[in-house]
Amino acid sequence: MSRPDLNLLFTLDVLLAEGSVAGAARRLRLSPSAMSRALARLRETTGDPLLVRAGRGLVPTPRAIELREQVGQLVQGGEAVLRPAEKLDLKQLVRTFTLRTSEGFVENFGPDLIARVGDEAPGVRLCFVQKSDKDSKPLRDGLVDLETGVVGQSTAPELRAQALLRDHFIGVVRMGHPLSQGEVTPSRYAAGRHVYVSRQGVDKGPIDEALRAVGLERKIVTIVGGFSTSLALARASDLIASVPERHTGNLREGMHSFPLPVSTPEITISLLWHPRLDADPAHRWLRGHVRHVCAALR
């Protein structure tokens, strides 16, 4: 069965409103003959005359009267769907946004973001969930609205991404630790006991490659899944944690931080979202605040 031409709905709406082929033709900027052909198609499609001659004019059939309100609502709904989004009323906006972030993001950027969002849109709630892997499925499935992280080979190619900040790794120890005094040389750093952060359970990374290049190897005594855990262990022991500087600012309060004695590449933290939300006004507004908050702490 062939699908009906939905453009006929707009033609029928005008015909029923005008009650005249000539009037509908003028309104739709068509010739009277073209409008007559359109009416013939409507009659064939609906199986009803719709408009019939009564003296010098046309009157609607019972079927046309029955359809008038329904067709009008359908046309208005279609126009609303295709119309550009209206200006966002933030004071009336009621919505929950789910953000999937790496450990440390909420602690450092969350307070400012929550305050800014609350000031402009008190009906908006932010739900932060832990990023335990790099799987893009939550964004694809609509379970997550925004995500932060490093774009890599496992990132779904259709996702939108925008750089938020650049970061680099530093060393962190408790106050009074031997490395909190004097110059931290590659050999002093490598000789310590280290806690390594890995969500995949691997025990080597760019820092180990940099140490290997100068003939050194550090001793990793424990592997944890997040930066806050590694810093908590370093705070309560002689372990050395190596974490991103900007991502862990508040987490390192009261501890001693120092530049790594070997060169490691910077990392770029990006904001990621699915293209289905690209043009959504509220989502676009939230993305702007995330960018602003991250830029403010550069």
Structure description:
- With 298 residues, the protein is α/β, with parallel strands linked by helices.
- It folds into three domains: 7-82, Arc Repressor Mutant, subunit A (Orthogonal Bundle); 90-167 and 268-296, 3-Layer(aba) Sandwich (D-Maltodextrin-Binding Protein, domain 2), CATH 3.40.190; 169-265, Periplasmic binding protein-like II (D-Maltodextrin-Binding Protein, domain 2, 3-Layer(aba) Sandwich), CATH 3.40.190.
- Helices cover 39% and strands 22% of the residues.
- It contains ten helices and twelve strands.
- The protein has helices spanning 7-18, 21-28, 32-46, 62-82, 105-120, 137-140, 186-191, 206-213, 227-235, 281-296, and strands spanning 51-54, 57-60, 95-101, 124-130, 146-149, 160-167, 169-173, 193-197, 219-224, 240-244, 256-259, 267-273.
- A five-stranded mixed sheet has the order 4-3-5-12-6, covered by helices on one side. It has a five-stranded mixed sheet with strand order 9-8-10-7-11.
- Helix 1 packs across helix 3 and helix 2 (21-28) crosses helix 3.
- The longest helix is centred in the N-terminal third of the chain and has 21 residues, at 62-82.
- The model has no long low-confidence stretch (mean pLDDT 88).
